[in-house]
Amino acid sequence: MKDVIAEVQKQLPGTDKDRYEVAYERGRVQARSALATVGLVLGVAVGTAIMFFFDPVLGRRRRALLQDRVTAISNDLSRTAENRAEDISNRAKGFAAEHDMPGATNRDEAEAIGE
Known about the structure:
mainly alpha; single chain
């Protein structure tokens, strides 16, 4: 489909066909070189990470440290989410009680019952 569109654009009146061909090829070369550069950088990064974590001497220690960090971050996120949920729940209950909304527990009634 791209070839058909490119051919139609080339055939439009007022298009300098030589300049169009040069610009089109230059764009293709730039795209290929950018793709090759990104692939090379990504390959080096992945290779370095694999070598870093699967090193026979220090790899086990590095993997254990990474696992500890991930576990700690996971626990912190879980704790933060629980605290925020509890805070929002308490704020909603307080708002409902202050504005005498249906289904809200009144603080005086709760104290009279002994809760």
